[in-house]
Amino acid sequence: MTARIVILTHDAPVSQIAQQASAVIRAGNLIIFPTDTVYGLGADPENEQAVTALFTAKGRAAEKPIAVLASDICQAKRWAVFSPMAETLAAAFWPGPLTLVLPPTPSAPAWLIKKGIGMRVPGDPFTRRLCDATGGLIATTSANLSDARAPESIDEFLAIFGEEAELIIFRQDAGVGTAASTVMDLCDDRPVLRRTGSITPTMIERILLEVGFS
């Protein structure tokens, strides 16, 4: 299998492209797609074999977590339990580059749960449309090999993932993002910053203090 390539231009039929990509995901295959942070390697989160293939393609250790992108907070709540603090941060920073690691609901697939489940509503409208077309949720990790730099061109994506992914959606006239999302772990009583991205600890602290969290 060699990946098909779709170029996402400013006047592209985004609904049609999202439906095409959704069909690929629902068939149990992997795609590469743009987000508001880095390019993602995506799979059907309800398909355990597809999620396993995602880990294999990336070379990611099985004990490490991946994230789930949601079209909106209602979809995120299908699989994650939101505390008042989580609600506050989601209201402030979603859609956007903040991943919240939250306790899973009973319906969350076991193969997505490590300590908790990482949820994010992306800021990119096309990515949200793709999530919506796929049932609201997409399992994802950054589209690079573990511990390696991100590809910067279609040719590099093809060289690395051309046999693993069925579809590569590449955004024309836009650079490949290098800043991953900020990750906040809210599974325990005390929040833990797991990774810093464009949303800084100062920004998070300011929002929490404004509503009375200490």
Give structural notes.
With 214 residues, the protein is α/β, with parallel strands linked by helices. It has a single domain (4-210), classed as Alpha-Beta Complex (DHBP synthase), CATH 3.90.870.10. The chain is built from seven helices and ten strands. Strands 1-8-2-3-7-4-6-5-9-10 form a ten-stranded mixed sheet, with helices on both faces. A hairpin with a 6-residue loop joins strand 2 (30-33) and strand 3 (40-43). Helix 1 crosses helix 5 (125-133).
Q: What is this structure's SSE topology?
A:
Layout: E1 4-8, H1 14-26, E2 30-33, E3 40-43, H2 48-58, E4 67-70, H3 73-76, H4 84-93, E5 98-102, E6 117-120, H5 125-133, E7 137-142, H6 154-161, E8 165-171, E9 182-185, E10 192-195, H7 201-210
Parallel strand pairs: 1-8, 2-8, 4-6, 5-9
Antiparallel strand pairs: 2-3, 3-7, 4-7, 5-6, 9-10
Helix pairs in contact: 1-5
Keywords:
214 residues, alpha/beta, DHBP synthase, 10-stranded mixed sheet, 7 helices, 30% helix, globular
- Principal-axes shape call: globular
The biggest sheet, with number of strands, parallel, antiparallel or mixed sense and barrel status, is: 10 strands, mixed
Number of domains: 1
Number of helices: 7
The CATH topology name reads DHBP synthase
How many β-strand stretches?
Answer: 10
Strand order of the largest sheet: 1-8-2-3-7-4-6-5-9-10
Q: What is the architecture at the second tier of CATH?
A: Alpha-Beta Complex
- Give the N-terminus to C-terminus distance in angstroms: 53 Å
